[in-house]
């Protein structure tokens, strides 16, 4: 339902978003450093492509009330722009504005501005000071702030906001900090003493990034007193949100009834098309039906990029199971020697996982999952029966949001390879690389039928099994390998410190462990109580900052 609501909102707001001179906003990375008095330095890193029209980049910050915005600093590639303060003139030429920045004060708002400079890619770092971000309520200290505006043209493809304390205070945890996110699809969580909200898919013109954060009373000494109970602020933000939503509004039920026959027709089409194999996104794969085989490991072995395609590449919304990517990560760590499989002395039928490494990847998404599992293992670094599942219950917000982070990171990898055109459609090369992900799955599924299945090196067998875990067919593929190439399969198991039966058991166990851990977390995440998890596209009313519009003009 939320995507239908988002579509209708986008249709309304989209008419008001005029075409601007920025071709693409690839990423916005925002860091908020909060002071004890509730003020904050906000640093934004904009990854933007600019074409030849327009003279400046502007960002409205509205609904300020008792807040103030000042001290704008902008730099690019380490070179600071000349800061003109409130002497900015929006009517000057592009050449005059190049290398300069300034603030345009308005009624209860400001516009932060800087010169566009030359055509092409820019990475601007903008930093400004906000007073009164965190305000005092009767029973809590809190803020509800819009960090990215609605109506930006174009809307950013990815946004990440990290909020941290800039003073000595107790570590932020769910015991003293609660969080809600609005205006976009993604997650908001309390992670390692910071509040982190991150989009899981591209924003639209109707999207915004709003964060509502409640702190235990006494952690701050806010200079601005809002007064009244925090619940009033929360109730206004939750109005129209998906948090605690017991069902669709009445108008939607009426609309659904009117469209029911059409919906049935669409369902019939989807079932028939899927049965015939026409189930893939042409935008990503260049075709809707993929029958071929591909023997090599796709996308340079990047599991996150493959997961992005499996999740976002289905035409009819049936996506890859989130726990499959988690199980695939575990199996790769075992294959690489980062985890050692050991017999469980309490139960000869079971195994445990001993952590042999501290670092497995330069990618923070994969490393976070490894660190969490290592933390679940305890002081002996031995992950035993039900330990990861128990950890996931206590850290539901982290765990439930991880698959969306994995998808977002996979999309970023695809972007960085240049596989997307300006219209968001894969280039011919990108589509061919994307198809390899499905073709590789076809090859593994039909392995016994392939005349190209000759014995492979041990390292390649390992990757075959890791990807089989990602595709959800690990047990089937392992049994095929064992039957066709028993000697080689035994070598794969031995190289990972196991015999054949232990290896098959371990593959099944890591998959079921991942399933239980994710399901435990998903059941508790996205709570109306503010324990984090998925954000709500709707709601967010009563916010400060932000507003509508922004970009090049």
Describe the structure.
- By secondary structure, this protein is of the alpha+beta class.
- Helices cover 36% and strands 25% of the residues.
- It folds into two domains: 2-243 and 533-552, Immunoglobulin-like, CATH 2.60.40; 294-524.
- The protein has helices at 2-14, 94-97, 230-238, 250-258, 260-275, 282-285, 303-312, 322-336, 364-377, 387-394, 396-416, 428-445, 458-471, 474-484, 486-495, 500-524; strands spanning 22-34, 40-50, 56-61, 68-76, 79-80, 82-83, 100-106, 109-115, 120-131, 135-136, 140-148, 159-165, 177-182, 186-191, 194-199, 209-216, 339-344, 347-355, 382-383, 533-534, 544-545, 551-552.
- A nine-stranded mixed beta sheet has the order 5-4-9-2-1-12-15-14-20, with helices on one face. Strands 6-7-8-3-22 form a five-stranded mixed beta sheet.
- A hairpin with a 2-residue loop joins strand 7 (100-106) and strand 8.
Number of strands: 22
Determine the fraction of residues in helical runs and give it as a percent range: 25-40%
Radius of gyration: 25 Å
- How much is the average pLDDT? 85
What's the tally of helices? 16
CATH topology of the largest domain: Immunoglobulin-like
- β-sheet strand percentage: 15-25%
Contiguous runs where pLDDT drops below 50 for at least 5 residues: 1-21, 245-256, 263-276
How many domains comprise the coordinates?
2
Class by alpha and beta content:
alpha+beta
Largest sheet data = 9 strands, mixed
Looking at the structure, what is the overall shape?
globular
Assign the CATH class of the largest domain.
Mainly Beta
Shape-level CATH architecture of the largest domain: Sandwich
Q: How far from one another are the termini? A: 35 Å
Strands of the largest sheet, in order across it? 5-4-9-2-1-12-15-14-20
